[in-house]
Amino acid sequence: MTQSTPVPVGHFRTGRLAEGRPHALDAWRVTTDDAEVAARVASLLGGQPQPNEGGGELAHEVLTKVETVRVLMDGPDAVAAHMILWGSKGILHQCDGLEFLSPEEKKGQPCGCPPRFEDRRLAAKEGRGPMPSINLTFRIAAEPGLGEFRFMTSSWQMAAQLSDLTDALEQVNGPAICDLTLELVVYTTKTGRGVCYRKPVVRVLGSRDTVTTEPPPLAEPTPAPAPSQLRRKARPTPEPTIPSAMESSHSVSVSAALLRQAAEVLGTAGHEETVIAALSEVVAGRQQSAELVRLREQVGKIAAIAEQVLQGRDSSLT
Ligand SMILES: [Zn+2]
What we know:
Mean pLDDT: 79
Strand content: 25-35%
Distance between the termini: 51 Å
Number of helices: 9
Order of helices and strands: EEHEEEEEEHEEHHEEHHHHH
Shape: globular
Radius of gyration: 22 Å
Bound molecules: zinc ion
Largest sheet: 12 strands, mixed
Low-confidence stretches: 225-253, 314-318
């Protein structure tokens, strides 16, 4: 499942470092060592080329304006994946899910990874088992001549769909037109906490004969409302969670314990700020602007209630 490919002209990324901390982005970020490529990417996908100060070791970065890029993927070989667990002295466990790929002395032996994805996720979460490492190689469909780009992800959701992806790529005769999307996932946990994150998704659309290479309309991704962007604690790309039925209903409950938990997660200082930030997370969905307006009207009331609830209880909370 692994392959060696030529050095890509640039990398697609879902996050960047700011002040030394990783931030998840709402639109694709592209890094490259080639100033001309950076300029072309910016003109195709929006944004401005700038010196790369967001991590990734390449000289230039473009914070594009798009969450979907139409790309060309050349058959199943455009997808390379393995599972990997690093230890302090190097690779402990690299496998294809069945057999070790490294360390060298174990190569070819059964690696012992459980067959079920959920069990693999749990093992990785507990540091016992390897994480997915998926490399996608593609060209920008609107300008394939720019060269090959690479996107690396350890998304479990993408890992779970890899065989579907390679099957779909196999079925297209020749290079496949695909949409590479940073898809917004919004849902409410059982405890009522709003969660939103973006997961990378590839949709195979067909061959160049049947699908336009023009990218989808340059729809700018819905930015998360300012309070959550400003006040949300910097964090690595969140652990992907399988969303349940969601996006249409959200419950907001105000309790001291929940607010304290939210304050920890969101990095907020005051109760009012926490409520606003938490609600902003809930309503960050692109189709939820109406709900945002409605909730904004209620934020003041809820914040007031929360403050009342918490008055006199602060000493026990801190
Ligand atoms: Zn394994």
